[in-house]
Amino acid sequence: MTEVVTNTAPPLRDEAAVAATAAATASGVHVRTLAEVADLTAVTRLFESIWRPAPGNQPVTPELLRAMVSAGNYVAGAFDGPDLLGACFGFFGGPAKGGLHSHIAGVATAGHGRGIGFALKLHQRAWALRQDVRVISWTFDPLVRRNAHFNLTKLAARPEQYLPDFYGPMHDGINGAGDTDRLMAVWDLASPSVRAAAEGRPARLDAAALRKQGAAVALAAGPDGAPVTGPADAPVVLVAVPPDIEALRLADPGRGRAWRVALREALGGLLAGGASVAGFDRAGWYVIAKEQS
């Protein structure tokens, strides 16, 4: 008699929906897609309160969001009762809607520390999988330590490109008027590492342990907080970022620019040479794996 084995594992879409619901419940919000003008206007106001742009330099307008939604793109908000505490906006890219580019995501100060950003991204992942999209990409400033940890550890996304001055001067309260270097993060929604991260089991790296095992330090902070470069002459390379680049830009713009240049040369140079980012240690280190011949 032939034994029939039934696969009882839930389909990926169902698994993603369960993870998204669990994340929203844990953060105390309800996440839903948005289409009405009033909701989209609230999203633009939320983004303005977070980025504090110069007059006439809105990150996005209600009209643009309305058009994007009508064309089938993604806009969602995280609500605590009637209060909008977070929002995320993305649009399809080629070929043939093969991927979703997540352009803006932000959480109000009142919602910090609750996991709302994680809930928004898991909602976006579940939504994308329902559209048969398996990859989401977005850019982030590689100097911002908390964002690197969130994107590369909490979500298990992986950078594919270092993009110097990607947007040009943005003139807002976060980016200032300096160069807007970015990492292009790619989120493989069905990968084992992303599935584990979505369930709250992200892989974590220990830069201190790797250093003891022979990892090279290509960029570190000196005693005065300034960037100090070193050799990248090992299979595993560590690249540091400052604790709070946004505060540093305000307190010491020159040192903030020095970090931008140093990270561009160290991290950007390694990626251009074929190395890959294996992850990020929350203590402030990119962990880079160099290709072996």
TrEMBL record:
It comes from Amycolatopsis mongoliensis. Signal peptide: none annotated. InterPro entries: Acyl_CoA_acyltransferase (IPR016181), GNAT_N_AcTrfase_prd (IPR038764). It comes from the Bacteria. This is GNAT family N-acetyltransferase.
